[in-house]
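Weekly modeling sync, notes
Attendees: S.R. (lead), two postdocs, one rotation student

Agenda item 3: backlog of single-chain predictions. S.R. asked that every request posted to the team notebook include the full sequence so nobody has to chase files. The rotation student volunteered to paste the first one in as an example of the format we agreed on. Action items at the bottom.

Example entry:
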Amino acid sequence: MSKELEIVELFLQYKDLLTKHQQKLVEDYYVFDLSLGEISENFNISRQGVYDALKKAKNQLFEYENKLKLKEKNDLLKTIHQNLLAKGFKEEAEEILKVIK
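Predicted structure, as returned to the notebook:
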């Protein structure tokens, strides 16, 4: 998995733990693929300021995952769901799906 995709997945899992400013920066950079220059113009801050804020937010996302393991657990539940479906346990798979959502 690419680092960018991993960060987006972590962002979707933990975005509410970031500040609104961090949420917008991460979303603009990793989801909407804006450049540091574009983001710096939108926020009226330096490119270095954007870079530093993104680095801090990214580190926080990885720290949250290291402590809470929510993405890891969610990925495991998805694997279990797929395995149950493959083995014909549709009802059990649907129960797992309820937990994931």
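Discussion: group reviewed the output briefly. Residues 47-68 form the longest helix (22 residues).
Action items: rotation student to repeat for the remaining queue; S.R. to check formatting next week.
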